[in-house]
């Protein structure tokens, strides 16, 4: 290898060129794992794992995590610098089965102006830590069952489509788990933006609630929509009332806290079966 400034120029043999080309053809992105490499090279997975490790040591691949590697371009900065181009693409490969949800989906759909450093991933993969950093990118991972780790929207990123939660699914997920969007108050802001968004598909909300809402999530969504509707007599008022009515159909018995992150109960909303332990909008109601 010849180093020129901070870049390195690498010479490679025709056989190595063929190996790397086979890896690239077998992947829609620059990421590859042992299973994919074995299929591309026509060898066993253990042999592929050893070969991937050897290519990494020589500087042709960069290890993202155990068993997952990035194919570096012919002219690339040293493997200790730089980061992967798109966190969504990286997440879709490293944490599969998964989809991009929570605050990252809200950002994508324009439902929030807040910027989050971490990319939010909903995954059924076996992940030890909720937070991880891969290739210089930060991720927040929420574990769910395999049948719930399926996004209901596809978004083009680079050369491939990545599963994501739709606007409606993002709302329902956040009502189930307010921490996925940064808390109940942020959920209320997202809901307000949603009802003013001309691209919303409000007619899809009942099916999303039926498929994915918990009783607690339906309670929170309905209560917040109703509280915002009391404050909003203009744009979005009708939609908020409709959301509240739809959510009430999926509300179940039992009492839950509006903000599950707060230990205090607050006061009781008998209509919704909620402990109202934080303020939504300018006022809230029973």
How would you describe this protein?
The chain is α+β, with helices and mostly antiparallel strands. It has helices spanning 14-25, 34-41, 45-57, 87-94, 102-108, 167-176, 184-195, 205-212, 215-231, 237-248; strands at 2-4, 7-9, 31-33, 61-65, 68-71, 75-77, 98-100, 119-123, 131-134, 137-143, 153-157, 160-164, 256-257, 267-269, 274-276. It has a 4-stranded mixed sheet with strand order 7-8-10-9. A 3-stranded antiparallel sheet has the order 1-2-6, with no helix packed on it. Strands 3-5-4 form a 3-stranded antiparallel sheet, with helices on both faces. The longest helix is centred in the last third of the chain and has 17 residues, at 215-231. The model is unreliable at 1-12, 75-83 and 282-286 (pLDDT under 50).
């Amino acid at each position: 290898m010849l180093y020129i400034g901070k870049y390195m120029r690498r010479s490679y043999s025709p056989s190595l060129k063929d190996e790397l080309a086979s890896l690239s053809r077998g992947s829609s992105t620059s990421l590859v794992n042992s299973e994919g490499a074995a299929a591309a090279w026509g060898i066993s997975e253990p042999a592929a794992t050893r070969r991937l490790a050897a290519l990494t040591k020589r500087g042709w691949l960069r290890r993202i995590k155990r068993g997952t590697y990035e194919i570096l371009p012919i002219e690339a900065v040293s493997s200790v610098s730089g980061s992967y181009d798109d966190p969504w693409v990286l997440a879709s490969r490293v944490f599969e089965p998964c989809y991009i949800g929570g605050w990252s989906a809200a950002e994508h759909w324009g439902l929030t102006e807040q910027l989050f450093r971490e990319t939010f991933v909903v995954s059924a993969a076996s992940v030890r830590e909720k937070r991880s950093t891969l290739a210089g990118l930060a991720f927040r991972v929420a574990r769910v069952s395999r049948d719930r780790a399926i996004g209901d929207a596809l978004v083009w990123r680079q050369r491939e489509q990545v599963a994501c939660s739709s606007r409606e699914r993002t709302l329902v997920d956040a009502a189930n788990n307010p921490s996925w969007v940064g808390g109940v108050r942020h959920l209320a802001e997202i809901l307000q933006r949603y009802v003013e968004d001309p691209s919303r598909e409000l007619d899809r909300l009942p099916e999303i609630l039926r498929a994915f809402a918990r009783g607690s999530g339906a309670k929170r969504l309905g209560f917040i929509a109703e509280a915002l509707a009391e404050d909003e007599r203009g744009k979005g008022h009708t939609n908020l009332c409709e959301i509240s009515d739809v959510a009430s159909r999926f509300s179940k018995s039992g009492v839950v806290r509006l903000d599950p992150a707060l230990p205090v109960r607050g006061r009781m909303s008998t209509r919704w079966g909620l402990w109202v332990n934080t303020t939504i909008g300018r006022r809230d109601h029973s």
